[in-house]
């Protein structure tokens, strides 16, 4: 039974209205949205072979081979597209990895090793996780982080999504609510369990037969908040809905899942994050993408994400007790200033206002601070009212 | 004769050491003339040692006490003064003589030439600011050599400043055409190791604090060619007393040292001490490094490794607040040298470990770089060949084979390996610390001028 019993229609009227608006925009944006087609195995193999041929050709000319990796961390290589988010520009600067330089030869070797692994996976149509790749040669790679970074570098270099490389990442996200789907291997996932959430799949591209009557999807920043909502039976009270968390900065699979749900269901996606610069940045990653994954923005971003809470204006409006408010640190202020300069904020005047309010008040608050008003305030008052009255920006 | 020359140098150095504290220059000239006088039956060898220049300012020959002179040359006989023309040429270069000591030895032998030359060369290596002129006349023949250091490097701890001759005497490889070649070396200062004085030495009057300071010098320098294969062929150990004057005579301790070193830890296959003959002529103790048997024919065809040698300086340091008279300090040095074997054996474990550490640290960076390049190259080649071999794309495979002008993947493997080694070996990375110059086609030789004995 949903929270408001007979007022289900009232509860979701604002949501339904938002959905209608979004669907209008979706029609406009249809041409802009890339329908992610599968890249064939042959194409992937061919791309890798071209890299190897380049190396052999260099050696045949008595030249030291090198690899040119697009620089994924440079803001200068990023442009903002309102339909997509942060995307990597064509002709972006590259980092040269030389085979004749002691400082880069190991990385060169690591990249080639991963090329071989990917080649073999694609050839045999099998999959491996990044963790598997690391543990197969820990001495060469040194750390899991090295493997993770190189896989993304290769994805960017070849201009193919990582999943096309047959390399999977262990997901860290959780999902719960009115949602059923089938994974590639035939496993049926039912997220409707009240007490436990399902792990986000590690093969999002393989998900089929998505069935959901959810009115909205709520992205929850933190696992702690997610668990609290789960314990409070939020998905039943605000049924039908879906909630998902990436447990902080979201991994690629969590972002892919959000995107997939948007592509399939076209329902409003609302973010519930702490009222602090870090939370806002996490929300921006879901909405506009990240610099490091900008080469894959079109499949990872959901520009329609709305900011449900916790808004800085909520803190004043709800008179959240001052003793649970935390002063902004120097780092917070610096991040806030940096966020305000981001190219996508120009198209979000309401977000700008909220952030400027935070700048002026010089305080931040976690979602848990609402418990200071009442223990069940979040689940029984705050969120239902927000959803009923369209309290998102 | 070497002892006498040694004493003179100690005298000048110890005097200079006192003045060094006031920051005066340590450069100057040293002249060593040795000539024979034919007597009725036995040839005597005359020797004159002269010094001039800033390094011996303060020496007052007239004030030299006869007993000090006796202390320096207890076994020598007085001799005629040297040819004034020889001295003139010397003073023209360095100014008026500050020191001239002459002595005569019986039992002249032409072998003294090589021994003195080696001694002076060893001295020059650790006292690079002193220009040495050596002339040996035996019968009607003359051997002459001037030791003038091209490239000096300071390597000093708190206790003393060392000016070392780091000139690389190895000709650069022919392959170095457009790039630069470092013509010097970069000494690495090791840790100071305190030594305990054995009872026998103490009974003879040796007290105070004794220690050794190690310095290593790898030559030639290949820092600018980090991928170049190198091969260490020799290690030479030179021991110097507290006055920076070389210790004479072979050292049993150092001759036996290789047996106690863990060569594997240092990254070497083995060390053995060179022959006595080599020791006499090269100064100090020389070890030959055993080379790895190359079983891999592919490796044999690679660019020939650059042969390197390592110079290990062992500087003895001594301080005793109760020894401050010059004659006492010189006597202490004689005592240290006399009991050196005993001292080293008394601290055998510590000295062995210190030498081990210095060798390991000096070779570590180079060995690690080589290992890194080698293992990365294996991965690069293995990965590339794996993809070529397992590809079903004939166009791709043929393109790779055709590019390298090979007919099959087996030949392709060897060809790629050789090519990768070739293109990476001579990678040049300029370093500010190197003494680089464009390689001259016919660089000047610093071989001694000699009319052969």
UniProtKB/TrEMBL annotation, chain A:
Leader sequence segment: none
Recorded superkingdom: Eukaryota
Positions of the Spo11/DNA topoisomerase VI subunit A N-terminal domain: 107-167
InterPro entries cross-referenced by the UniProt entry: Meiotic_Spo11, Spo11/TopoVI_A, Spo11/TopoVI_A_N, Spo11/TopoVI_A_sf, TOPRIM_Topo6A/Spo11, WH-like_DNA-bd_sf
Catalytic reaction annotation: ATP-dependent breakage, passage and rejoining of double-stranded DNA
Parts of the chain that traverse the membrane: none
Nucleus among keywords: yes
Compartments, as annotated in UniProt: Nucleus
EC number: 5.6.2.2
Any one GO cellular component localisation term in the record: nuclear chromosome
Active site annotation, chain numbering: 135 (o-(5'-phospho-dna)-tyrosine intermediate)
UniProt-recorded name of the protein: DNA topoisomerase (ATP-hydrolyzing)
Organism: Cottoperca gobio
Automatic annotation (TrEMBL), chain B:
GO BP term, example: meiotic DNA double-strand break formation
Pfam family for this entry, one: DUF4554
Name of this protein: Type 2 DNA topoisomerase 6 subunit B-like isoform X2
Organism from which the protein derives: Cottoperca gobio
Organism ancestry: Eukaryota, Metazoa, Chordata, Craniata, Vertebrata
């Amino acid at each position: 039974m949903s929270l408001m019993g007979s007022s289900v229609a009232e509860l979701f009227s604002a949501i339904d209205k938002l959905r209608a608006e979004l669907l209008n925009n979706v029609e406009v944006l249809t041409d802009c949205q890339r329908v992610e087609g599968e890249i064939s195995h042959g194409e992937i193999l061919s791309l890798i072979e071209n890299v190897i041929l380049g190396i052999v050709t260099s050696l045949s000319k008595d030249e030291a081979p090198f690899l040119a990796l697009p620089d994924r961390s440079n803001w200068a290589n990023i442009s903002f597209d309102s339909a997509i988010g942060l995307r990597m520009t064509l002709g972006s600067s590259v980092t040269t990895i030389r085979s004749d330089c002691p400082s880069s030869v190991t990385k060169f070797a690591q990249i080639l090793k991963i090329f071989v692994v990917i080649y073999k996976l694609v050839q045999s149509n099998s999959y491996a996780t990044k963790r598997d790749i690391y543990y197969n040669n820990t001495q060469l790679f040194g750390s899991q982080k090295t493997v993770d970074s190189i896989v993304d570098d290769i994805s960017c270099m070849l201009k193919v999504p990582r999943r096309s490389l047959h390399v999977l990442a262990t997901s860290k996200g959780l999902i719960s609510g009115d949602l059923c789907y089938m994974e590639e291997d035939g496993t049926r996932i039912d997220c409707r369990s009240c007490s436990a959430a399902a792990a986000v799949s590690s093969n999002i591209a393989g998900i089929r037969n998505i069935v959901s009557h959810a009115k909205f999807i709520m992205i929850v920043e933190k696992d702690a908040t997610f668990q609290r909502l789960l314990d409070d039976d939020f998905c039943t009270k605000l049924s039908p809905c879906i909630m998902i968390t990436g447990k902080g900065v979201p991994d690629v699979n969590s972002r892919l899942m959000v995107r997939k749900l948007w592509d399939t269901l076209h329902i409003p996606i609302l973010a519930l994050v702490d009222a602090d610069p870090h939370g806002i940045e996490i929300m921006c990653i879901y909405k506009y993408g990240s610099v490091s994954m900008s080469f894959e923005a079109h499949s990872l971003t959901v520009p329609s994400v709305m900011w449900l809470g916790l808004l800085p204006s909520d803190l004043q409006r709800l008179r959240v007790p001052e003793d649970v408010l935390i002063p902004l640190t120097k780092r917070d202020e610096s991040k806030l200033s940096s966020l305000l300069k981001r190219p996508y904020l120009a198209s979000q005047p309401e977000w700008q206002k909220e952030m400027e309010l935070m700048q002026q008040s010089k305080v931040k608050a976690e979602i848990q601070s609402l418990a200071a008003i009442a223990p069940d305030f979040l689940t029984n008052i705050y969120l239902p009212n927000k959803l009923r009255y369209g309290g998102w920006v | 004769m070497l002892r006498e020359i040694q004493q003179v140098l100690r005298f000048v150095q110890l005097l200079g050491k006192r003045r060094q504290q006031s920051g005066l220059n340590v450069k100057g000239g040293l002249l060593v003339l040795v000539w024979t006088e034919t007597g009725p039956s036995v040839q005597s060898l005359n020797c004159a040692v002269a010094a001039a220049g800033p390094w011996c300012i303060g020496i007052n020959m007239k004030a030299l006490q006869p007993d000090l002179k006796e202390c320096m040359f207890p076994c020598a006989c007085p001799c005629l003064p040297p040819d004034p023309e020889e001295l003139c040429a010397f003073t023209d270069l360095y100014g008026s003589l500050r020191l001239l000591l002459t002595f005569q030895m019986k039992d002249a032998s032409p072998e003294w030439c090589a021994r003195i030359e080696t001694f002076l060369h060893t001295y020059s290596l650790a006292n690079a600011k002193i220009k040495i002129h050596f002339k040996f006349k035996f019968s009607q023949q003359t051997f002459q050599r001037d030791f003038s250091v091209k490239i000096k490097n300071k390597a000093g701890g708190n206790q003393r400043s060392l000016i070392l001759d780091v000139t690389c005497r190895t000709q650069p490889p022919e392959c170095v055409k457009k790039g630069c070649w470092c013509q010097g070396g970069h000494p690495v200062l090791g840790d100071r190791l305190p030594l305990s004085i054995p009872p026998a030495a103490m009974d003879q009057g040796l007290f105070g604090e004794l220690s050794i300071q190690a310095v290593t010098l790898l030559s030639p320098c290949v820092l600018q060619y980090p991928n170049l294969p190198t091969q260490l062929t020799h290690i030479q150990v030179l021991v110097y007393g507290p006055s920076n004057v070389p210790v004479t005579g072979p050292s049993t301790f150092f001759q036996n040292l290789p047996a106690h070193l863990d060569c594997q830890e240092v990254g070497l296959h083995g060390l053995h001490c060179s022959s006595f003959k080599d020791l006499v002529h090269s100064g100090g103790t020389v070890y030959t490094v055993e080379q790895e048997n190359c079983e891999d024919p592919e490796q044999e065809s690679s660019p020939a490794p650059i042969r390197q040698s390592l110079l290990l300086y062992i500087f003895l340091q001594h301080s005793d607040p109760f020894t401050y008279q010059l004659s006492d300090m010189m006597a202490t040095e004689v005592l240290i040298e006399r009991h050196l074997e005993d001292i080293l054996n008394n601290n055998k474990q510590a000295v062995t470990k210190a030498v081990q550490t210095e060798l390991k640290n000096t070779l570590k960076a180079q060995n690690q770089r080589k290992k890194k390049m080698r293992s990365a190259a294996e991965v690069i080649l293995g990965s590339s060949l794996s993809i070529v071999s397992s590809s079903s794309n004939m166009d791709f495979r043929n393109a790779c084979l055709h590019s390298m002008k090979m007919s099959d993947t087996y030949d392709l493997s060897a060809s790629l390996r050789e090519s990768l080694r070739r293109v990476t070996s001579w990678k040049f990375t300029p370093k500010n610390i190197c003494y680089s110059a464009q390689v001259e086609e016919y660089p000047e030789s610093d071989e001694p001028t000699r009319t052969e004995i």
